[in-house]
Amino acid sequence: MHVHTPIKVRYGETDMMGVVYHANYLLYFEDARIDFLNALDFSYAERIEGAGYMSPIHDVEIHYRAPLRYGEEGFVRTSVAKNLPMRTVYRQQVYRAEDVVEDAAADKASDAPDGPGTEGTAAPARREPLLREGATPLVDALITVCVVERDTFKPVSLKRTFPDLYAAYADIAEEA
Description:
20% of the residues lie in helices and 34% in strands. The strands form three sheets. Strands 1-4-5-8-3 form a five-stranded antiparallel sheet. The chain has a three-stranded antiparallel sheet with strand order 2-9-10. A hairpin with a 4-residue loop joins strand 4 (73-83) and strand 5. It is an alpha+beta fold.
């Protein structure tokens, strides 16, 4: 499962060379992870923060290959790379907007299996955006997050605290 979150580079997000300042990709990634959770019908604000938890970043690995510039449009492609009881590793990649194949989205409503949390419902099939052949990410990142108690910052098990989210991630993770 991949979720695409659009980016339109604003002037204030660039450095003196007119390219996105490297740290701003972390902000794009944060927004994209929230979109990813929303696509699973799992609101970060309501379900995680509302229950007294937070999900801080534990580790970041980023490879910058080519820049986005002021005024350009792109997107963050987010997926779950690895699902562990105490951590989730997201793969987050930035592409140019033209790297999406618009009318070739994998929209197979008639033969698509129900997504996580849709058992027994008539939920519409998810449109899985496709990348054009030869598209390569401008930025490639693995972002590891954990879940902690808000008041103590004590780590908790995602598997025990949010078993439905853990199960959904288990179904879509790229590796076990």
